[in-house]
């Protein structure tokens, strides 16, 4: 069944309304008509099986047939913070795959070695919407504005805070995850990695350095690998 997204404000049981870009996709791309049944998610953990009642005035009015919560969602919350990449397509890929795997939030980081000084937050949020629907999720990860690393680590409050680092050799992420599943923040460096000073700041803020293995990984590869280890 095809997935569509509406914000919670568009849901008023026993009805909901699909408009905007999702309406255009519903009617012009998927060619859905009154009487067709589809699946709608609100990005806040709610899933609705609905029947389209009418598609007048640039909006689809739907009857809610069934409601479920947190379907296909991980039991734990994972926040992925990663250095912004010079190649925008690679960060696009990171956002898509991290969303598919189940992260709850994505934080683009500004670090000593990040080259871009801006973040394409709106674009990445749209990519997260598409990846949420494609993967059958019902929680939409929040893509935060570009955040300095020092600010991010100082404000992180998850019970497990991890920073993969190539100089860590004794403690692996796999070993840490084997200790149990809990809400986690992952902090991944940009091209060139974190500086020693940045790692020290993170450790002082309660982050634990871990190894992802002996090979040097690209930021997007390290991000996907780390998220997959924590969530699977």
Care to describe what's here?
Helix 2 packs parallel to helix 3 and helix 2 runs parallel beside helix 7. The relative contact order is 0.16. The protein folds into 2 domains: 67 residues, Ribosomal Protein L25, Chain P (Beta Barrel); 154 residues, Alpha/beta knot (3-Layer(aba) Sandwich). The protein is built from 7 helices and 13 strands. 31% of the residues lie in helices and 28% in strands. It is elongated, with a radius of gyration of 20 Å. With 232 residues, the protein is an alpha/beta fold. Strands 7, 8, 9, 10, 11, 12 and 13 form a 7-stranded parallel β-sheet that branches. The protein has a 6-stranded mixed β-sheet with strand order 1-4-5-6-3-2.
In total, how many beta strands?
13
Tertiary shape: elongated
Q: Helix amount, in percent?
A: 25-40%
Number of helix segments? 7
User: Structural class, from helix and strand content?
Assistant: alpha/beta
CATH architecture of the largest domain: 3-Layer(aba) Sandwich
Short description, anyone?
This protein is of the alpha/beta class. It has helices at residues 20-29, 88-101, 121-134, 149-155, 173-177, 196-204, 219-231, and strands at 3-5, 11-12, 15-19, 37-41, 46-54, 59-69, 78-83, 105-110, 142-143, 147-148, 160-164, 184-188, 208-210. It folds into 2 domains: 3-69, Ribosomal Protein L25, Chain P, CATH 2.40.240; 78-231, Alpha/beta knot (3-Layer(aba) Sandwich), CATH 3.40.1280.10.
């Amino acid at each position: 069944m095809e997935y569509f997204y509406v914000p919670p404000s568009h849901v008023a049981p026993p009805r909901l309304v699909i408009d905007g870009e999702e309406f255009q996709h519903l009617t012009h791309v998927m060619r859905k008509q009154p009487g067709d049944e589809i699946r709608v998610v609100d990005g806040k953990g709610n899933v609705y099986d609905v029947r389209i009642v009418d598609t007048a005035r640039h909006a689809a009015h739907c009857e809610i047939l069934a409601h479920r919560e947190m379907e296909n969602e991980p039991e734990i919350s994972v926040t992925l913070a990663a250095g912004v990449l010079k190649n925008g397509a690679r960060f696009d890929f990171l956002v898509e795959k991290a969303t598919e795997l189940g992260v709850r939030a994505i934080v683009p980081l500004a670090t000593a070695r990040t080259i871009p000084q801006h973040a394409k937050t709106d674009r990445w949020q749209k990519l997260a919407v598409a990846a949420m629907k494609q993967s059958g999720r019902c929680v939409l990860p929040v893509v935060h504005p570009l955040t300095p690393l020092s600010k991010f680590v100082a404000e992180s409050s998850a019970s497990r805070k991890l920073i993969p680092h190539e100089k860590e050799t004794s403690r692996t992420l796999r070993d840490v995850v084997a200790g149990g599943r809990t809400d986690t923040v992952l902090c991944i460096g940009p091209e060139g990695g974190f500086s020693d000073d940045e790692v020290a700041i993170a450790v002082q803020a309660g982050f634990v350095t871990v190894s992802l293995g002996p090979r040097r990984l690209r930021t997007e590869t390290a991000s996907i690998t780390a998220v997959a280890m924590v969530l699977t």
